Amino acid sequence: MGGTFDPIHHGHLVAASEVQARLDLDEVVFVPTGQPWQKEGRGVTSAEHRYLMTVIATASNPRFTVSRVDIDRPGPTYTVDTLTDLREQRPDAELFFITGADALAQILSWRGVEQMWPLAQFIGVTRPGHVLSDKGLPPDHVRLMEVPAMAISSTDCRQRVVDDEPVWYLVPDGVVQYIGKYQLYKPEAGEVKEA
Ligand code: ATP
Ligand code: MG
User: Fold this and answer.
1) Where do the Cytidyltransferase-like domain residues begin and end (predicted)?
2) Which of 88, 156, 176, 191 is deepest in the core (most CB within 10 A)?
């Protein structure tokens, strides 16, 4: 499951858990993006902070792991590169790429989309506020799945921190504490943002 995870929240975790259980997956690999090319307009929190929050959020689940492939690869993150790297690391694995309805709707605009299809089975999951559709996508490579509706976004979590509103129970407890410890998302804390 790729994502910016800025910060990781319970929408990500519930989606991953549901797909893991339904498909009986051995492992769900969370892959925080390096530089997300779709989000160049805003300052994204440093990759190390996003990586560590993802590690904290997933640590208690024996089937959840976190990969550094995207944050260690220089330049913008493209999913075709993510899947190529994961495939090299796990030559015998059957790969699935979990993606929310909003991201699935954008997928045809992703770089290298044609090379991407044979690398994994794409699992599009429901997300409140977005229509889940596989229209125009290759049916052999895409499958849709309903997951418990969690109306949570990282954008909303960041805005809540700015507005001094709670993020408890939207993100895991350790992530709430991590955000507080490093003063993430507070506009006055200039150090934590990358341009
Ligand atoms: P932002 O608001 O910064 O874009 P986000 O909440 O959309 O953050 P991302 O890191 O962009 O989180 O998303 C990573 C992946 O998780 C995407 O495929 C996205 O569609 C999916 N996802 C995010 N939130 C949910 C949710 N609440 N339910 C289902 N899928 C989700
Ligand atoms: Mg998003």
Assistant:
1) 1-160
2) 176
Domain for residue 113, yes or no? yes
Does residue 51 sit within a domain?
Answer: yes
Cα–Cα distance between 78 and 70 in angstroms, integer? Answer: 8
Partnered with residue 143 across adjacent β-strands are: 123
Name all residues whose Cβ lies below 6 A of ligand 1.
Answer: 3-6, 11-12, 15, 99-100, 102-103, 125, 127, 150, 152-155
Rounded to the nearest angstrom, the distance between the alpha carbon of 92 and the centre of ligand 2 is 30
Ligand 1, residue 6: give the atom nearest the CA. Answer: 3
Complex ipTM: 0.99
The domain of 68 spans: 2-186
The helix (H) or strand (E) run that includes residue 62 is none
* pLDDT one-digit tens code per residue, 61-106: 999 999 999 999 999 999 999 999 999 999 999 999 999 999 999 9
